[in-house]
Specification:
alpha+beta; Cytochrome p450; globular; five-stranded mixed beta sheet; single chain; binds protoporphyrin IX containing FE
Length: 394
């Protein structure tokens, strides 16, 4: 459906700033518009929210048993409708509880401390590769119990989300196979017993919604989902947020000069998620004849939800093109409804931790930011900043 849009999602100027393109489309075609292929693009906040929350829209699949040509699971619970969705999500949900996230905070603090203590005042550091990636990978590798050096396979695998834009398909397939092989070993060697805050034990032990352990197919699909949904997205929230602040020095000053309470940084993180969300789209199809905002939608119609555009809907947000770290935005960056992001709270905590440390080091721009050549997952490849960490804090 992306090929039907009135802009080229692979063009560098679009990737650097897609938002004026969304606004032009909204002005010319409204909050919902039919695409030449028969699908519908949804730009409005209310309309996207209604689709995400309605049972009339879904993925049209009720099983995760499909496999790819390589014999790997083709669908995780992200792409499956209830009741299977609810069973599979329910099995691992407690690994994302407040208690489970609190248990990961010491790891986050350690990674950030290690990173910042290596920086001398005035050094240039890359927010993406020096801070956000090590933090997010530390968290994901702890959740999945994969070794540090597994990152290279994960990078390849994540590069393969959109083969058209990422190059060598056989490398991506190989990365998928290696990742699955390693996960199979991890799952097979997991010690018996169920710990409600531990993802792997929730997958391998009995006691889920059906009283059984996950099948190997489900365990692989869920672990693969956690990796693909949780790593680069968290990097994106941190780096996109930092970039937004560097582009808006008045907002940066508000946080570096005045932010006194954890509430200030929490609000700011929500605004970063609204302003420049790491996931730009959602996909659904009508599972029955239905309507949204008076527009009739026949069963089977695919919908492209432009979450980045919805987050800048002027009917919902005052001055939506403006970054305002003091607002309390009801954004759609983490989706809504049944598929609301399971890792939203974990992502927020990582972003708060990383941005607190970065802001304490009084960041200044130190070069051009570059974007990953993908639109669906919007994150920076590189964001150089000059930092002045206080050695007493670091
Ligand atoms: C800033 C970071 C993140 C963003 C912007 C984000 C965004 C989203 C969005 C928009 C969805 C809904 C997709 C849809 O409805 O089609 C989603 C689902 C999901 N996310 Fe996140 N995510 C982030 C971080 C994470 C993290 C850290 C994890 C786990 C470690 C995670 C795990 C998931 C899972 C498992 C789902 C599927 C939920 C379901 O289908 O029930 N996400 N995420």
């Amino acid at each position: 459906m992306a090929d039907d849009l009135p802009f080229d999602v692979t063009c560098p100027s679009f990737l650097a700033d897609p938002y004026p393109h969304y606004e032009r489309m909204r002005e010319q075609r409204g909050q919902m518009c039919r695409l030449p292929s028969g699908g519908i693009a949804v730009l409005g906040h209310r309309e996207c929210s209604a689709v995400l929350r309605s049972r009339d829209f879904g993925h049209g699949a009720r099983t995760t048993s499909d496999t790819t040509a390589y014999g790997l699971p083709a669908r995780s619970f992200l792409l499956v409708d209830p009741p299977v969705h609810d069973q599979h999500r329910g099995r691992v949900a407690s690994a994302f509880s407040t208690e489970a996230i609190s248990a990961l905070v010491p790891l986050m603090t350690e990674v950030l401390h290690q990173r910042v203590s290596a920086i001398r005042p005035g050094d240039i550091c890359d927010v993406v590769t020096d801070i956000a990636e090590p933090l997010a990978w530390g968290v994901i590798s702890a959740l999945l119990r994969v070794p540090e050096d597994f990152k290279k396979h994960a990078e390849l695998l994540l590069g393969g989300v959109n083969p058209r834009q990422s190059g060598n398909e056989s490398h991506n397939a190989l990365a998928r196979v290696k990742f699955s092989r390693a996960l199979r070993k991890i799952l097979a060697s997991a010690p018996p017993g169920r710990c409600p805050t531990d993802l792997i034990s929730l997958l391998t032990s009995a006691g889920g919604p059906d009283g059984l352990p996950a099948t190997q197919q489900e365990a692989l699909a869920t672990s693969g989902l956690i990796l693909s949904a949780g790593y680069k997205t968290s990097v994106g929230l941190i780096a996109n947020g930092m970039r937004a602040l560097l582009d808006h020095p008045d907002q940066l000053r508000l946080l570096t000069d005045n932010a006194k309470t954890p509430g200030d940084i929490s609000k700011a993180v929500e605004e970063f998620a609204r302003f420049d969300p790491p996931i730009q789209i959602g996909l659904r199809a009508a599972v029955t004849d239905t309507e949204i905002a008076g527009v009739a939608i026949p069963q089977g119609t695919p919908l492209l939800l432009l979450l980045g555009a919805a987050n800048r809907d002027h009917r919902v947000f005052d001055n939506p093109q403006q970054l305002d770290v003091t607002r309390t935005p009801r954004h759609l960056a983490f989706g809504a409804g049944k598929h609301f992001c399971l890792g939203a709270q974990l992502a927020r905590v990582q972003a708060r931790q990383a941005l607190t440390v970065l802001l304490q080091a009084r960041p200044q721009p130190a070069g051009a930011a570059t974007y990953d050549a993908r639109w669906v997952t919007r994150h920076l490849r590189s964001l150089p900043v000059r930092l002045f960490p206080n050695p007493e804090i670091a």
